[in-house]
Design goal:
By secondary structure, this protein is an alpha/beta fold. It has a single domain, classed as HAD superfamily/HAD-like (Rossmann fold, 3-Layer(aba) Sandwich). About 40% of the residues lie in helices and about 15% in strands. The protein has a seven-stranded mixed beta sheet with strand order 4-3-2-1-5-6-7. Helix 4 crosses helix 6 and helix 5 packs parallel to helix 10.
Length: about 250
C-alpha cells in the first residue's frame, strides 16, 4: 500500500462501512455502457457527454430513448446471463456476513439491471443505490436520477460521494472499492481504497494510498487481515475532506 500519514483513532468502537462500485467491479464488464452500446445509439451523445456539452443524466436519457427495439425482462435477463460476475464476490460477501460489516453498492448505472444481474447469480438483499430504470408496457425504458447532486463536481448521475457520506458517521472507517471514473470522488473521501482500472491510475497520479486488486477475492483477503488486526485507521486527508463536506451542508 502506498503510504500516507494517518492518525490512530481514540474510539475503539468505530464501525467499518464498505462501499462498492458495481459496473466492472462486481460485474465482469461495464454493463451500462455495453448494453446501450449494443442496443441503442451512442453517438453523437457519448462524445458530447465526454466534451461536457451535455450532462451525464442527459446522456442516459438519450441512451434509454434510443433503444432500437422494445425491451422485455426476458431479453434483459438473457443478455445479463452472458456477463460474468467477479469470481471473488462470494469471498467478499462471506467475509461481510461473518463480520457483520455494513456493505453498500453504489453505482452510476441502473437498478433495473443491477438487481436482476445479482439475482441471476444468487445474490439478494444487498443495499443498492443507483439510477432508477423501469420498463413500460410497450417496452420503453424510463429513467430517473434520485441520487443526482448539484453540489458536487463529480462527472456522474449518481453522486457517490454524497451517498457515502450520508450513510456514514464521523467515527466510521470508510472502505471504498472501485474501478472507474465515477469512483474518483468517493475514493478521495475514503479511509481505505481498493482500486483497479482507471481508479488505480487516478490514485497513482494523485498519490492516494490504495490497495490494487484483480478480483474481489484479493479485496476479501486483505480486508480480513485488516479487520483481524484492527488496522483500519482514519486517513487524515480523507477525514479533512469529509469534515469539509459535512460542515458545508
Amino acid at each position: 500500500m502506498i503510504s500516507e500519514a494517518s492518525q490512530q483513532s481514540d474510539n475503539p468502537l468505530y464501525t467499518v462501512r464498505i462501499f462498492c462500485d458495481f459496473d466492472g467491479t462486481i460485474s465482469g464488464k461495464d454493463i451500462g455502457f455495453d448494453f446501450f452500446n449494443r442496443f441503442s445509439v451512442q453517438e453523437p451523445w457519448n462524445g458530447m457527454m465526454l466534451n461536457h456539452e451535455i450532462s451525464v443524466t442527459d446522456y442516459w436519457r438519450r441512451m434509454a430513448s434510443g433503444l432500437r427495439d422494445p425491451l422485455t425482462t426476458e431479453f434483459l435477463d438473457d443478455y445479463l446471463r452472458s456477463i460474468p460476475v467477479d469470481p471473488g464476490l462470494d469471498d467478499l460477501l462471506t467475509l461481510i456476513r461473518e463480520r457483520s460489516v455494513p456493505f453498500t453498492v453504489v453505482s452510476d448505472g441502473f437498478d433495473l439491471y443491477i438487481r436482476r444481474f445479482l439475482a441471476i447469480h444468487g445474490v439478494h438483499h444487498l443495499d443498492i443505490y443507483a439510477n432508477h430504470a423501469g420498463l413500460t408496457a410497450d417496452g420503453r425504458m424510463e429513467v430517473s436520477f434520485p441520487h443526482a447532486a448539484e453540489g458536487c463536481a463529480c462527472f456522474c448521475a449518481t453522486c457517490k460521494r454524497n451517498l457515502v457520506l450520508s450513510l456514514s458517521s464521523p467515527d466510521d472507517r470508510i472502505v471504498y472499492i472501485g474501478d472507474g471514473v465515477s469512483d474518483y470522488c468517493p475514493a478521495e473521501h475514503a479511509d481505505v481504497i481498493f482500486a483497479k482500472g482507471s481508479l488505480a491510475a487516478y490514485c497513482n497520479a494523485h498519490r492516494l494510498p490504495h490497495y490494487p486488486f484483480k478480483t474481489l477475492a484479493d479485496v476479501a483477503l486483505q480486508l480480513r487481515t485488516l479487520l483481524e488486526r484492527r488496522r483500519l485507521r482514519p486517513r487524515h486527508q480523507a477525514a479533512l475532506k469529509r469534515k469539509g463536506v459535512w460542515e458545508g451542508e
